[in-house]
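Table S7 (text form). Paired inputs.
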Amino acid sequence: MANDLHLHPGDALGFELTILFKTVIVTSFLVWFSVQCFYAHRVWIIGGRNMLLTGAVLAAALVQLIFGFGMCFTFLQN
């Protein structure tokens, strides 16, 4: 009875990850990156063109985008 339920690494809550679900994940990361770039632009304006502060915001946004795409590619391999 315990062996009836087989979950594979590509499964989420027991169902296969479909291409639509993968597309939603990629789109979400792109939207989040765009929003963070807009926020960095606002920080640039309000912060008096502070390159260090704006660079930190952009670096955090870029790291999140890279890790997000890395997660999506691991999903695509399964």
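Next pair, protein 2 of 2.
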Amino acid sequence: MNLPTLNIANIVNIVNTVNTVSIVNHGVQRVDVEDFEHLRKDELLIRRLRAWVPIGSPSRPIDLDDLATGFEQVPLRSSSLASTIESIDEEFYHLDLAHETDCYNTLIREGGRPSHPVSLGRDVLEDLGQYREIISYWQSGEYDWQVFQRQMGAWRAFLEFQRKHRDKKGDFPQYARAVRQRLEKYGFTRPFQLDEVLERQDKMTTWIEYLDYEYWRYLKDMAFVKLHQPEYNAAWKKLVDSRVLRPGETEESICNVECIFRGAREEEKAEGAVESAEGTMMWAEEAIANPQCSTLSPQYAERRLAAAQSTLDSAVKSRKLIKRRNALLREFFEKIGESQTVDGIARTGYREVKRNAECRSIILRWIVQQIPLIELELSTAKVAENEANKQDQDGGDRRSKHNGVR
């Protein structure tokens, strides 16, 4: 069986999702890692892998010699294993936190609102409290605390959307009507007025426009789901009718990387069983063809040959069933699974879009919850501004009186 070539840039994701993985070295040596329950929690391993792969670097095949060299490039600064692990963990944590802080500050500077204070760092996972729901929206996994880069990216996508509808001549009035109608459809009746000149538009209006943007994305996703629902239904029916699903298997349980790797392991094991049975067959046939070179009696050799043939037939049948099951699961997953790029063309996955639409209620609810907080911030800022102006005016009056007395 041809094993898949893994990429350095996504090995961290594989560590988090599969139980066993085979890494090919020059196409001949294979290293099987079985203890993935431990590796999933091995933050040090994941951080060292991340350190070796710069953000944005292109994927390339893993070479075990190269991998070992990469690990050696991350210095170990303590003679004690425990203190070394702690030191490296803290070093990489502070690097990650610095990057998160940059994204957090950029998000605020560009007018967005973060889900929670960046000062909480990874400790936010210890007690999510009021941030539990909104952080879950941005997380890529249960233990993911680095969410501000995604928030910054999402906000920038909205800003680009804003500009696009203002740059096109004559498009803005129609866009502004669509925003108002869409929000009214979902029960948002607060008065607001979009401004074609973004620099003149106030903070609250921009936030309301962001709410509409997320509603627009939701409607777009639901339209995609509705369009492709018949295709999904047909693909699922074909899979069910093929009778390759096992008891208790659902769409959710088969559409993940772990299922794909489990199928690959089963196929590899089935190939090994066939090869082993073929070897036994050859041995039994050799014993019958050359009885003088064998210690087996002819009768026993015949029985061994019959047993070997039966084992081989069973192994071939099992391999065929497993290969058929894997092929059908792959076909289903490719049709309705995650978004992917095929031959340079981006393909949107049904399941991913449906999942995004189902989660959209979280971000929509959070955006609405931010409105009274923004009102309070604007009101507080106005009071502070008025107080500052009053102090300036009082100071000016006192200076005028003082000059008059002279």
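Residues 1-37, 50-61 have pLDDT under 50 and may be disordered.
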